[in-house]
Amino acid sequence: MAFINENPLFSINGKVGKYVVRKFNGKKIIALRPTHYKKTKSKRVLVNQNKFAMVSNLAKVVNSNPLLYEIWKSSRLKGFSPYHKIIKANMKHATEDGLSVCNIIVPPSQFNFVGDILL
Known about the structure:
The chain has 119 residues and is of the alpha+beta class. The chain has helices at residues 43-63, 66-73, 82-91, and strands spanning 2-4, 14-16, 19-24, 27-32.
């Protein structure tokens, strides 16, 4: 794997012959492309791909709102970015058919509220 320094004259992205240039963890890298991709026919994999696609679209819509973006960014959930935090929080709530009523657009509360205390 090779790293590319930014050049003010031009920028390389995408496929270049049998190599692919992309950004990974904030750095440009060059990697060898696979010769071919084997598309699976497994029902379980297709269901998970569908769930991920739905949650990914939800994350894209939520991130497009600046206020919701900042709320997810400041949340204490573990994640590389607000987009990844949204996906992590919502994947467990998605069903085979897609999103459910349990999916969230704001992170879970960081506070533990106590309803009533008996002494």
